[in-house]
Amino acid sequence: MKVDVLLGLQWGDEGKGKVVDVLTPRYDVVARFQGGPNAGHTLEFAGQKYVLRSIPSGIFQGDKVNLIGNGVVLDPALFKAEAEALEASGHPLKERLHISKKAHLILPTHRLLDAAYEMAKGDAKVGTTGKGIGPTYTDKVSRNGLRVGDILHNFEAKYEAAKKRHIDILKSLDYGPYDLEGMEKAWLEGIEYLKQFHLVDSEHEVNRLLDEGKSVLCEGAQGTMLDVDFGSYPFVTSSNTICAGACTGLGVAPNKIGEVYGIFKAYCTRVGAGPFPTELFDETGEKMCALGHEYGAVTGRKRRCGWIDLVALKYAVMVDGVTKLIMMKSDVLDTFETIKACVAYKIDGEEVDYFPFDISEGVEPVYAELPGWKTDMTGMQSEDEFPEEFNAYLSFLEDQLGVPIKFVSIGPDREQTIERYIDEA
Ligand code: GDP
Ligand code: IMO
Ligand code: MG
């Protein structure tokens, strides 16, 4: 068996949580492989809305194994709050959620360091989610991190040593005051709580399940344009969000990757700082924001909105090896007269259609314009009902990206998802 991967192709918040939930009945296992509580994955069904941060989005559909892989960074305090809220709402997870012993722990001082580094950057702030993601991955790579498996043996000494090191850095950055003791209380309770879960050697578990013929769906967090290597560096997150991240974040060999689902909005958004060539600063952008309820699931920050960027999307399709596309939030454009799509960048007067080293300055989008479909699509049941102009938009995108669009999402609810017939011959 192979693992399928589902990942965001833009700057995050494409709707990954919703689609993972929709696809879960087709799989035995759903696994997160990178990121941490910087993610906010929203699901809606039966009139209820849930936002998941560290727990995989397969948790609501039957008796599936949900796995937090080694590539994830976990904050025990936030994890406990998230897990307890789910259990309280009638979704028991202790038996179904497995956590890699190799996943790294986000310490309270990592969150303080995140804030301190942001402050030190001044105007060049990344606009992080403030969850300690960067400092935790930094400690992982510099071989100073603490892992979930460490909580089982002699943890206190390891924790105190890491804390002391962090406090020295905070002093050198002149950061404070802060209430570390207050933060530590919930965090240490979270450490105890974690011990009640299956803490596993997840690379062995995933490969064993594959050998037994089980199917696995890997759930990406963030998006390709936030990848630490290929995104709009330095305005990125600190993990590999691309498809290859599923290999390192779960211990799955590259030749075991099957289908790669690339998910994108029918337009584009970004939260936090950093370049965004197709960003709109006019009433069209405001309209996208209002109709799409574009406010961050984790931080509540307003998301910047703009037209779809096919130069960036093509790049994402290339580095991820996308085999099937999924288009989200098409309903947000239901009332638009004209739809624009960026097909090239103009840089120093020259048109380029590849994603360049630096998009921070002097990049002017070149747009194709298509007629809007001006039809309320939110109640549609099958692709047979799609308006002609909408089909034309889909064909245009498939043509540009060279990959078929397999699913279209026409609203936030689980039911508002349409699978398209694709001739796979
Ligand atoms: P994720 O981080 O990729 O899982 O995405 P988020 O949950 O952060 O953001 C996606 C937002 O769009 C959530 O509020 C979803 O409920 C919502 N959403 C998902 N699909 C659709 C859709 O097709 N139409 C509309 N209007 N909203 C959607
Ligand atoms: P999901 O999984 C959108 C952005 C932050 C910031 C940058 C670095 O819900 O799509 P970090 O806290 O990771 O160090 O912040 O990355 N960012 C996201 N933007 N969706 C996310 O996750 C994000 N996770 C991080 O806004 O610009
Ligand atoms: Mg999100």
UniProtKB/TrEMBL annotation:
Catalytic residues, chain numbering: 13, 41, 140
Localization per record: Cytoplasm
Cofactor: Mg(2+)
Binding site for GTP: 12-18, 40-42, 303, 329-331, 409-411
GO (cellular component) term, any one: cytoplasm
Domain of life: Bacteria
GO biological process terms, semicolon-separated: 'de novo' AMP biosynthetic process; IMP metabolic process
Pfam families named in the record: Adenylsucc_synt
Free-text comment on the cofactor: Binds 1 Mg(2+) ion per subunit.
InterPro entries: Adenylosuccin_syn_GTP-bd (IPR018220), Adenylosuccin_syn_Lys_AS (IPR033128), Adenylosuccinate_synth_dom1 (IPR042109), Adenylosuccinate_synth_dom2 (IPR042110), Adenylosuccinate_synth_dom3 (IPR042111), Adenylosuccinate_synthetase (IPR001114), P-loop_NTPase (IPR027417)
Gene Ontology MF terms: adenylosuccinate synthase activity; GTP binding; magnesium ion binding
Binding residues for IMP: 13-16, 38-41, 129, 143, 222, 237, 301
Pathway entry: Purine metabolism; AMP biosynthesis via de novo pathway; AMP from IMP: step 1/2
Major place of residence: cytoplasm
Residues in coiled coil: none
Chain positions recorded as Mg(2+) binding sites: 13, 40
Record keywords: Cytoplasm, GTP-binding, Ligase, Magnesium, Metal-binding, Nucleotide-binding, Purine biosynthesis
EC number, UniProt record: 6.3.4.4
Residues that bind substrate: 297-303
Catalytic activity: IMP + L-aspartate + GTP = N(6)-(1,2-dicarboxyethyl)-AMP + GDP + phosphate + 2 H(+)
Keyword Transmembrane included in the entry's annotation: no
Function, in words: Plays an important role in the de novo pathway of purine nucleotide biosynthesis. Catalyzes the first committed step in the biosynthesis of AMP from IMP.
UniProt subunit comment: Homodimer.
Family designation: Belongs to the adenylosuccinate synthetase family.
Protein name: Adenylosuccinate synthetase
